[in-house]
Specification:
By secondary structure, the chain is mainly alpha-helical. It has 18 helices and no strands. The longest helix has about 40 residues. The termini are far apart.
Length: about 450
Amino acid sequence: MGLYNLVMPIYNLFICVMSAGMVAAISKISAIYYENKDYKNLYKTIKTTLGFNLIWSVAVAFSVFFLNDFLAVSIVKDLRASAALKIICPAMIFITLSNIFKGYFYGISRVMIPAVIDIFEKGIRISIILLLLTIFKSDSMNTRLAVSYSALCVGEFISLFLLYIYYRENRKKNIQNHHLPVEGRAQLLYNVLAVSVPLCINGVITNILSTASALIVPRRLAAAGIEYSTALSLIGKFSGMAMTIVFFPMVIIGSINTILIPDLSKSISKKDYHSSEKRIKDVLKLSFLLGICTIMICITIPDSLGLMIFKRRDLGQYIRFAAYSSPLYYASVTTYGILNGMGKHHILLRNSMVISVIEIIILFYLTSIPTINIYGYGITLIITSFLSVAANILEIKKSFQLTISSGNVLIYSLFTFLLYYILNIVYKILPDYLFLLKTYSVILISFSLFIFAIYYTKKISQ
C-alpha cells in the first residue's frame, strides 16, 4: 500500500498534464450550448477536443513509458515502481478521453450515466485484481503492484468504451437549431482551452507540490530514525488505509462539486446571485456536517472500521487521528469547487500553491521528529485545511454575503455532542459478538442524524 501510494501521485501528476480542467471546461461549455439547443457547436466542440486530447495524451504517455526507469529511480526512489509506471501509460490516455465525455454528461445534467458507469467500472476493476492475484500467486511486490495497476488500466478502458456508447446514443436524440451560427474548430478549441489551461496550470503546479509532499514523507521518516521498509509500511497504514476510510464520504463532496461548477456558472451568467449565494451556503453547511459525522464515527469505532474494511487490528490509532481533519478538509475541498464555479481560477491557483508550499514545509519538519513521525501527516492536514477554508472563504465573501448564524452554530455544537453521546451508548449496549451489526448501527445512526440536522437547519432558515 505504501509503494502503491508513492506511484499514484506520479500517475495523478501526468493526468493533470494531459487533461486537468477539461471536465470543468467541457461541462461549462456543454451547459451553455445545451441550454441554447446549439447542438452542432456542442458536438463539434466535443469532437475537436477529443482529437486534440488524443494527440496530446499519446505524446505524454510515450514520454512516461520511455522514462519509466528514470522516474522510478530518481523520483519514486524505488525501482520496483518501474513496471507499474509502464502499465499506467495506456490508462492515462483512456482517462483523458473519458474526462471529455464525463464533462459533457455533467454539463447536460445527465450525471447518472457517468455515475453508473463509474460504479460498474470499479466493480470490474476489483474482479480483475482478484482474478489476476489468483492466477499470479506471487509474493513479489513488483507483481502485486503491476496487477493493481493493470486492473486500473483495464477499468479505465471499459469506462471510456461505455461512455462513448452512451454519448453516441444521447447525441442522436438532440435536434439541431439550424438558425444558430456554427463556429470554426480553432475557435471552439480555444473556448475550451481558455477555461481548461488555467485550471491545468493550477492542477499541474499543485500536483507537483502534492507529489513532492508524498515523496518527501518516507525520506523524512528515515531521518527520524525509521527504516525505509517500516516507513513505507507506516505510509501504507496512514495514507493508504486510514485516510481512505476517513475520506470515503469525499465521494459525496466530489459529486457536489461536479454539479456545483456548471450550476454556479449558469446562475452567475444569468446574474441570479441570490440563487448562487443560497447554493454556496447549502453546500458549505452540508460538507461541514458531513465532516462532523465522519469524525464522530471514526473516533467511536476506529478499530472496528480497520478490521471490517482492511482486516487489520493496528489501524485504529491512525483512523482516529486522521479523522480530526475531516470537517475542515471537506469544507476546504468544497470552497475550491465554489471558486472554480465562480470562474476565479487565478485565485484558486494562488491559494492552492501557497497552501501546498506550506504543506511541504510543515511535513518536512514534523515527520522528521521521532515522537511525531507519521502523525505529522495528520497535523499538516488539519493546519492546511484550516488555512484553505479561511483563505477561500475570504475570497468568496468578496462576491457573496456569507453570514454565519449564531443559532446554527449552537445547533451544530449541540448536534455534535448529542451524536457522540448516542453513538457511544449504542456501541456499549450492543455486544462484541454482533460485530457487523454493532459497526453498521453506529454508521447508520450517524448518517441518519446527519440528514436530520440538514433538514432541521433548513427548516429554521426558512
